[in-house]
């Protein structure tokens, strides 16, 4: 079973690869759809499984609130993207989303995930990893 942090980081790299594929692959609509669903699913799983644990940890509340704020901003951009058919406007929204996600991913990987490693027991992390992987699988 993969570590929880590996599953989360794996999603981050996939999302980054999809942004790159969009930029280099002629702004393909399928790529936009895939990126939006993957990112929305990733954020939902973090909100359901990971952030509630972070909230219980000392120093975790402010990190979690900041992360949730960033998710809301990303979710609103995803919603606008899903209703935008003009390719130029889509490109603008995708650039905004890419920048927002990049900043969020840096904070998550440098602050939030290390906190999870130190403050949550290995057994709990393993159970969370199993739930994360299972829900990710089911949502495909
Ligand atoms: Fe994440
Ligand atoms: Fe996140």
Determine the CATH topology.
Four Helix Bundle (Hemerythrin (Met), subunit A)
- Our measurement of the CA-to-CA distance between the termini, rounded to an integer number of angstroms, reads 19 Å
Q: Helices and strands: which structural class?
A: mainly alpha
Spell the H/E element sequence.
HHHHH
Uncertain runs: none
Average pLDDT for all residues:
94
CATH architectural label: Up-down Bundle
Strand content: under 5%
- The geometry reads as elongated
CATH homology group = nmb1532 protein domain like
Number of domains: 1
- Helix tally equals 5
Strand count: 0
How are the elements arranged and paired?
Layout: H1 4-24, H2 29-55, H3 60-82, H4 87-119, H5 122-139
Bound molecules: fe (ii) ion (2 copies).
């Amino acid at each position: 079973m993969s570590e929880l942090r590996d599953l989360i980081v794996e999603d981050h790299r996939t999302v980054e690869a999809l942004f790159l594929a969009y930029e280099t692959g002629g702004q393909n609509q399928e790529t936009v759809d895939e990126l939006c669903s993957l990112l929305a699913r990733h954020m939902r799983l973090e909100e359901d499984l990971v952030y509630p644990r972070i909230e219980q940890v000392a120093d975790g509340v402010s990190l979690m609130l900041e992360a949730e704020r960033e998710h809301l901003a990303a979710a609103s951009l995803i919603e606008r993207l899903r209703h935008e058919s003009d390719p130029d406007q889509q490109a603008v929204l995708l650039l905004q989303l890419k920048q927002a996600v990049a900043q969020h991913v840096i904070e998550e990987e440098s602050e939030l995930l290390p906190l999870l490693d130190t403050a949550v027991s290995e057994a709990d992390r393993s159970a969370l990893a199993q739930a994360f992987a299972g829900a990710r699988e089911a949502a495909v």
